[in-house]
TrEMBL record:
The keyword Signal applies. One of its GO terms (biological process) is proteolysis. Gene3D superfamilies: alpha/beta hydrolase. InterPro entries: AB_hydrolase_fold, Peptidase_S10. Keywords: Carboxypeptidase, Glycoprotein, Hydrolase, Protease, Signal. Residues 1-19 form the signal peptide. It comes from the Bacteria. This is Carboxypeptidase. GO terms for molecular function: serine-type carboxypeptidase activity.
Length: 493
């Protein structure tokens, strides 16, 4: 028997309202715990892994978001002074997946020795993880990974340089309290935009949460608010150009035959002593000197002298990615932005910039299935939410970025605080020479020189994807943490 039309209409309305109320929601306060063992440097390390969500509160104590995190704790050691490493990735808008599944954690992506994706997708044990020395928590800021705002929350409290730092400092303080880690020596590690984040957190945690850090690790750092625009930024690209050209065998024979680091030392000296002063001269530079600089820069970069002249001695990085391998002999490939070891194929050989980022396409190819499989199937974190590899966080308020200066102030106020920068020589987005420049200007006085260090690797932005650098970079983190544990030494100058 058919239903009366009005009854049918009412039923459909009720079903519609019911469906509207069923949102893909994140539980705002939950945790799932499991146990496992990994062999690190040949020794078995048992650990507990906790993946869950902890609330974000506003100034009135109201829950405004839930942050998803994954926490690894070694279980055969009970020392309350065991170090804690808090890890962030970048973007802004990037999930904490990259360092989680490819660098410091007990699991690493299935990729080849150079970092290229392989199938079947998945993960394996990381024999170089720093979990033997330090417990680790990977944090996804709002709208990255599974982290989400609550319905009706104000976006402006999250999506900006200083907003991000403020709410994350409060969240970290709560997390440390919940997990009884106040006695632990604490370290922050951030990659790319994550370096802006952790640089600002160093002072925010210290000033407003009274949490003093032992170390900050900046992986492929941004400018962190330290000014280097204009001719400095243009000149600083040459050492990176040389590295990428060397990798692709585009340099003259006498340079191509050199080891990379001695070659880069030579190019750095030329950049500082010759190229930068030439750019500062502008139109006052004589034609003869201009041609001389173009010839030298061409020799170091793989571009030709006319290209340097046509670009006023300042070819852009995008131009370099498009043109380094242009020409039939070089294959008309583009090179990657974040890792210039990667090559791409454009629709046209001509143009000013590549059609796409060949390296990022490769990474998303392998990381996306792996993190979804790992969290959902191995760790049991089941949700209908999409895992945001890159989440909706824009527009991002970049005003008032003084994070580098804040890090310097935190170091000055805290004699225990050390800083290490790690960079890949083939990174064209946050190039290694810019990273050195940032390091030099973190403390232009030189009075904290012994607390600042730089490590370079023959790979790109995510230098740990290359297997030899995965081992070397983790060992550098391990060495840095050990050196930053003061023991009984008082915090005083």
């Amino acid at each position: 028997m058919s239903r009366p039309p009005l009854l049918l209409f009412a039923l459909l309305c009720s079903l519609s309202l019911f469906a509207q109320k069923q949102h893909r929601q994140l539980p705002l306060d939950t945790a799932i715990v499991s146990e496992n063992t990994v062999r690190i440097k040949g020794k078995a390390v048992p650990y507990e892994v906790e993946t869950g969500v902890q609330p974000v509160y506003d100034d009135n104590g109201k829950v405004t978001a839930g942050l998803h995190y994954t926490y690894y704790r070694r279980t055969d050691q009970t020392d309350p002074n065991r170090p804690l490493l808090i890890s962030f990735n970048g973007g802004p808008g990037s999930a904490s997946v990259w360092m989680h599944l490819a660098y410091t954690g007990p699991k690493v992506l299935n990729i080849d020795e150079e970092g290229y994706p392989v199938q079947p997708y998945g993960i394996s044990d990381n024999p170089y993880s720093v979990l033997d020395l330090t417990d680790i928590v990977y944090v996804n800021p709002v709208n990255t990974g599974f982290s989400r705002m609550v319905e009706g929350a104000d976006r402006e409290q999250f999506f900006g340089v200083n907003q991000d730092i403020k709410y994350l400092a409060d969240w970290i303080s709560n997390w440390v309290s919940r997990h009884d880690r106040w006695r632990s020596p604490k370290f922050l590690i951030g990659e790319s935009y994550g370096t802006t984040r952790v640089s600002g957190l160093a002072l925010e945690l210290q000033d407003n949460r009274w949490m003093y850090l032992n170390g900050v690790i900046l992986v492929s750092p941004t400018e962190i608010g330290i000014e280097r625009a204009g001719i400095v930024e243009a000149a600083n690209q040459l050492p990176y150009f040389a590295a990428a050209a060397w990798y692709h065998k585009q340099l003259p024979t006498e340079l191509q035959s050199m080891e990379l680091e001695p070659l880069l030392a030579e190019v750095e000296a030329y950049t500082r002593n010759e190229l930068l002063p030439a750019l500062a001269s502008g139109m006052d530079l004589s034609d003869a000197r201009r041609r001389e600089v173009a010839a030298a820069a061409a020799r170091y970069s793989g571009l030709d002298a006319q290209e340097w002249l046509d670009n006023n001695l300042m070819p852009s990085a995008a131009y370099f990615w498009k043109n380094l391998l242009r020409g039939e002999e070089a294959g008309n490939y583009t090179v990657g932005r974040l890792d210039s070891r990667y090559r791409g194929v454009d629709a046209r050989a001509a143009g000013e910039r590549p059609d796409y980022n060949s390296e990022l396409t490769s990474w998303l190819h392998s990381f996306t299935p792996a993190i979804n499989y790992y969290l959902r199937e191995e760790l049991g974190f089941r949700t209908d939410l999409q895992y945001h590899m890159f989440g909706p966080v824009h527009p991002w308020d970049r005003s008032g970025d003084r994070t580098g200066y804040n890090l310097q102030q935190a170091m000055a106020m805290n004699p225990y605080l050390n800083v290490m920068i790690q960079s890949g020589y083939f990174d064209g987005a946050t190039n290694y020479y810019d990273a050195k420049y940032t390091l030099w200007h973190l403390d232009p006085s030189g009075r904290m020189r012994d607390r600042l260090s730089f490590k370079g690797y023959e790979s790109g932005h995510m230098m740990y994807l290359r297997r030899p650098d995965l081992e070397a970079a983790n060992e550098d983190v391990r060495t840095f943490i050990r050196a930053s544990l003061p023991g009984e030494k008082p915090a005083r100058y």
